[in-house]
């Protein structure tokens, strides 16, 4: 269990440190083109994934914080119940770390700092951060684990 929580802690630390660097180096909405398809930016997301409910007037901050706390308790419980399932627990640990990283922003800033911005011509993917990346990789690992032979 400790190794899974340690992985979550590493995700939180990397997420918060990267967001700290971005907030010190960039003004809000500032872009730094890195390649023809990737920029470093500083955006603030008051909603959830893809700015879902970002303009909802403020109640969403409490709502998403409560969801993150409930999910964290469930994830920790699942890791305790299945510590021998490595791929499953790594996926959960990544999701937990990402959820806690974004929860910290939401509670301390009122929004989540996003800074990784991919685009192609006039098509743009919403900006995201290390926590979002960890959550996506964690979900992919859980899906992969669900297809593994359960014998």
Give a brief rundown of this model.
The protein is α+β, with helices and mostly antiparallel strands and 151 residues long. 58% of the residues lie in helices and 15% in strands.
As for the number of domains, it is 1
Q: Give the strand order, joined by hyphens, for the main sheet.
A: 1-2-3-4
The major pleated sheet works out as:
4 strands, antiparallel
Helix coverage percent: 55-70%
Radius of gyration: 16 Å
The protein's oligomeric status is: single chain
Please mark out the parts with pLDDT under 50 across 5 or more consecutive residues, or reply none.
Answer: none
Counting DSSP H or I runs of 4 or more residues, the number of helices is 4
Q: How would you classify the helix and strand content by structural class? A: alpha+beta
How much β-strand is present in the residues? 5-15%
Mean pLDDT: 91
Q: What overall form do the CA principal axes indicate?
A: globular
**What is the string of SSEs from the N terminus onward?**
HEEHHEEH
Distance between the termini: 23 Å
What secondary-structure arrangement, pairings included, does this model have?
Blueprint (H helix, E strand, L loop, with lengths): L1 H24 L5 E3 L4 E8 L13 H23 L4 H23 L3 E9 L2 E2 L5 H18 L4
Antiparallel strand pairs: 1-2, 2-3, 3-4
């Amino acid at each position: 269990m400790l190794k899974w929580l340690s992985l979550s802690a590493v995700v939180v630390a990397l997420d918060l440190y990267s967001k700290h660097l971005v907030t010190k180096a960039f003004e809000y909405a500032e872009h730094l083109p890195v390649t023809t398809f990737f920029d470093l930016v500083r955006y603030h997301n008051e909603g959830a994934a893809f700015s879902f409910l970002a303009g909802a007037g403020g109640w969403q901050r409490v709502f998403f914080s409560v969801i993150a706390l409930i999910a964290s308790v469930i994830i920790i419980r699942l890791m305790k119940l299945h510590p021998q399932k490595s791929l499953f627990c790594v996926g959960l640990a990544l999701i937990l770390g990402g959820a806690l990283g974004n929860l910290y922003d939401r509670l301390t800033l009122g929004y989540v700092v996003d800074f990784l911005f991919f685009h192609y011509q006039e098509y743009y993917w919403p900006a995201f951060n290390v926590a979002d990346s960890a959550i996506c990789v964690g979900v992919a690992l859980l899906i992969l684990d669900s297809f593994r032979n359960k014998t």
